[in-house]
Amino acid sequence: MENIMEIRGLSKSFNKVLALDNVNLNIPRGRIIGLFGKNGAGKSTLMRCMLGFLKYDGEIYYQGRVFGHNNHHLFEKVDFIPDVNTLDEGLTVQQTINYIKGINPRWDNSRAEALLAKSDLPLRQKVKNLSKGMKTKLNLLIVLSLDVEFLLLDEPTIGLDIVFRKEFFNIILGDFFDETKTIFVSTHQVDEVEHILQDIIFIDKGNILLHMDIEELKSQYLEVRVPRRFSDELKKHKPIQIWEGLGYMFALVKEKIDIPGAEYGIPQLKDLFLAKVGGEA
User: Fold this and answer.
1) Which residue has the higher pLDDT, 56 or 167?
2) Distance (Å, rounded) from C-alpha 238 to C-alpha 85?
3) DSSP assignments along 137-170, one per residue
4) What's the pLDDT band for 281 if we cut at 50, 70, 90?
5) Residue 173 has pLDDT above 70, yes or no
6) Helix pair angle (132-144, 93-103), 10° resolution
7) Which of 47, 157, 228, 233 is most exposed by smallest CB count within 10 Å?
């Protein structure tokens, strides 16, 4: 599988506090990759290094070529949606679109018009008067209207309502992703992106704990449900993770166990995360 980006020995410190510790990653082309970690695990720092926003130790290769801090050539085929709004608050929606269209040779006008027709963006309204959801929608429209092959998303739907969060990922899949493009997404909304992910990365304290195909990961474990009265017997089997439900006990195991009434299913990503990393997902 061809890699669109390769990261070798990446380390980054802030005031002698190690944020990334000798990170090595291969980012394959044409995949949707999820990056998960607790607060302070190094997710945003890793993405900012991948984008060249920070100085770092180590090397990052994009399509086989080394690039470094503030290398603007990277953005000829790479774009991102950050967790903060970066739009000019004084412009209207139409002025914002016209401005980006005028300065960026990668602008795909036909795609922009198609996205705009499906949106309810108020063209004459100033950006500063838009809701957070509308600002995110405008930012998304701009990014998806650019001819890029690598899209990075850093908590792109934080603070948005559940309806728009679902619409956001539907737009990403329907209007951007194909086998030639790559999406790298960092989010705490595990349940909402699980169904679109192909690969998964767990990071903790600046270290990569896991990087693999999500279906392969899930195939290694089972989720078991047993009546609560069998909780002591369930614990004797030393499950990897255990939690309580309404009238039932749930656990993460590697193979079936001999408990009456046990039912099995495919584990959820958040439970695999808790088992590997611990703490709150």
Assistant:
1) 56
2) 46
3) HHHHHHHHTB--SEEEEESTTTT--HHHHHHHHH
4) very low
5) yes
6) 20
7) 228
pLDDT digits (tens, 9 = 90+) for 74-128: 888 898 877 556 788 999 999 999 999 998 888 999 989 988 888 889 999 999 9
Tell me the CATH class for 3-215. Answer: alpha beta
Residue 27 to residues 11, 194, 197, 257, Cα–Cα distance (Å): 17, 18, 13, 37
Cα→Cα distances 243→17, 193, 248, 272, 275, Å: 34, 22, 9, 12, 11
Tell me how crowded residue 45 is: count the other CB atoms within 10 A of its CB. Answer: 22
Question: Which pLDDT score, from 0 to 100, does residue 279 have?
Answer: 57
**Structure-token pair, residue 214:** 């999500």
Per DSSP, what are the bridge partners of residue 17? 14
- Residue in the block written with tokens 């039932």: 248
17 C-beta neighbours (distance < 10 Å), count: 9
Rounded Cα distance between 230 and 236, Å, is: 10
Q: Under a CB-based contact definition with an 8 Å cutoff, are residues 250 and 231 in contact?
A: no
Would strands 150-154 and 32-36 be described as parallel, antiparallel, or unpaired?
unpaired
